[in-house]
Amino acid sequence: MKARSLPVPIPLLLAVGIAAISFSGIFVRLSDAPVSVMAMYRLLLTNIILLPFMLKFRPAIRRASFRDWTLTGLSGICLGVHYLLWMNSLRLTSVASSTVILSLQPIIVLIGAFWLFKERTTGKAIAGMSVAIGGTLLIGWGDLQVAGDALTGDLLSLAGTFAIALHMLFGQLVLRRMPAMLYSFTAFASAALVIAVYNVAFGFSFGGYSGQNWLIFALLAFVPTVFGQLLFNWLLRYVSATNVSMSVLGEPAGASLLAFWLLGERITGMQMAAGAIILLGVWYFLKHNKTTEAAAKPQQAAIAGSSNG
């Protein structure tokens, strides 16, 4: 099956994923649990949701090579490290600064995809990427700091950005041979283990949280993870990691709108303009990036030979 034969257009699926992950910040704001605990239960509860579907992947589990399992485990470790580095960066630097640094993710993925998969793109696509990243710069322009604790926080955010970029590149590599749901289940388990070790090391409790917190944990699993991260992982079978990482740049705009509607947070004219610029840049990139079908073809060739694809 080729990407263009999907019953739902890929841009619509990317839009659904962006909307889903945009709820993440809203749910975090509504909980008073440690953010690392939220991240751990978000992944663990997602795997509980996925567990009944794992039986159908028994043939794929037997077929997967040691290399596939290793790369999937590394992908999950990178995801867990990203959560920890990025969350800790927010204790030292501003949300705006961290958001701007995180917007470098597509550039890192683009370079990695060229190195690993020999993917190339067009000048128009790069222009669209530049426009979108410029929009994130507008969001954090007045809040960037380069000294003291803020510098440490910015460096943590940058390291976390490299980690999530590696997670996506590992995913594109493994999903040439492994079903998306099996890959996601294994990667999420690895990420949850990394975060659990962190929670034990720093003395964060695994229990004693209110019913509202457990509801938030479940919502984090169901909305931004199942309909966001899991959907993006599945789409890596059909589009390049660069396209997916570019789409994620739409999250700040979506999160700002949701915060306005649900939490009553104020949106400035600059934020509205920046959000429009980000979405315009993402749209222009996706329209003109020519790596999509090139990346999908070798993946589809591998998937076509799998009855569990």
Automatic annotation (TrEMBL):
Entry keywords, A to Z: Membrane, Transmembrane, Transmembrane helix
Superkingdom assignment: Bacteria
Main subcellular location of this protein, as a coarse class: membrane
Topology class, membrane: Multi-pass membrane protein
Cellular component terms (Gene Ontology): membrane
Location of the protein in the cell: Endomembrane system
Family annotation (InterPro entries): AA-Vitamin_Transporters, EamA_dom, EmrE-like
Transmembrane annotation, as ranges: 12-31, 37-57, 69-86, 92-117, 124-143, 155-175, 182-202, 214-236, 243-263, 269-286
Domain EamA residue range list: 13-140, 152-284
The UniProt record lists the keyword Transmembrane: yes
Pfam families documented for this protein: EamA
Family: Belongs to the EamA transporter family.
Annotated protein name in UniProt: EamA/RhaT family transporter
Lineage of origin: Bacteria, Bacillati, Bacillota, Bacilli, Bacillales
